[in-house]
Amino acid sequence: LCKKKLPKKLKPKKKRKCAKKLCGYHNCLDIQQRANTTADGEYQMMLGGRNVSIYCHQMNTTWPKEFLTLPTGEEENYSEVYGMSLTSPNTCPNNGSRDNCPCVKDDSPRAGMTAWK
Hints:
With 117 residues, the protein is mainly β. The chain is built from one helix and seven strands; from the N terminus they run αβββββββ. The protein has one helix at residues 28-34; strands at residues 41-47, 50-57, 65-68, 78-81, 84-86, 103-105, 112-115. It has a three-stranded antiparallel sheet with strand order 1-2-3, covered by helices on one side. It has a two-stranded antiparallel sheet with strand order 4-7. A hairpin with a 2-residue loop joins strand 1 and strand 2 (50-57). The protein is flat, with a radius of gyration of 24 Å.
């Protein structure tokens, strides 16, 4: 159906920006004070206009600390050091492809992949 001909009762409510300046929590101290909690744990807070899961630590102190919660699993949280180096560091390999790049082999023991589970 064309959205103009859609009955009003079937249309979703319009999205509106929050009129208040402080929507959501902005740091762990804000959570501690506004939610009146001292429990360490995962909390949702606003970062760059988005709700993000943050771990709040030392919530029973005057300056709790924030830690970014990283996803787990080999496909979500990993680090890779490629075993080849570009011959000219100011160039890019064929649109990011590793095949037939102008590279030299890097025999560094750093080469490899680490995954956090």
